[in-house]
Predict the structure of VCBS repeat-containing protein.
Amino acid sequence: MERLIFSIRVQKMKFLFLLFSCAFTLVFNQSLAQQFNPEIIRIKNNESPLRPYQFFDFDGDGDFDIYYYYNNDNLYLIENIGDSICPIFNWAKKRENPLKTIKVFNSSIVDIDSDGDYDIIGNKNGKIVWCENIGTKTNPVFNEMVELNVGLSVSIQNKRFVDIDGDGDFDVFGVRRKDGVGIKDRYIVFQENIGTSSVPAFSDIKFSPFNLPESLSAASLSIEFIDIDNDGDLDAYFTETYNQKGKCYILENVGNSFEPQFAKPKTDFPGLTNPFYIMTFADIDSDGQVEFVGSVINFMPNGLVLYYQEMITGEEE
């Protein structure tokens, strides 16, 4: 009788192990099977920007608008005159410089003071400056720029504000050169927000944090974070380009949302075949899947291209 009970328990354990293995294989294969539709959909524009675009709801109407800066300090806002499902970006009536006569370099959109609306942070005369939104989420009005003394480094370019460690406030990633190196050598850097979401304070710069690699001899490089495999943590993407040879890299977060650790970079982007200067991600059609938007090299005329992500169910091997 004891042998029979032991045998039943062993069989149950084998069944549970097999069930878990199949589930793990399916989920793992699903994450690897995601790909982008190779069909290229143009987003019309007149510039070929070398700076990141940002998709966000500028006017609080429930859809994504586009913000970017061109030639360093010329700020542009492209309003979505469609809706969250069928976006139409109004390039013909782009709002030039929402800061009116104020010009800032290397700017980013972020709710830095956690008051529910977007502010603009940038560089001016060797200092980090802040243009606070003193209006509302639906009717933004930007205040005069003031110096922002929260520890942010003025040397970081192409800033990306993300909560990488799950503590509820924005940290910052970007790229910069090391002292004494040439244009081909830029490095991924990080500053942790050791303050709070409403009163930020940033730590000193760290190079290659969380096992992220240094730049791969990139003259132009941007970094982006998105949970591409839907496992609850942020994965990293970055681009590099030199002499018109652009590459995109994905680095899976093999840690978690509180203690990130990134795997070695891979270049296998199913469906993406063009070299990119800049890339970003946004669910611009509200279908629950992110789209890829990149600024393409040698795409005549140069401009943005849009790839739709396809969620393909993996099969057990």
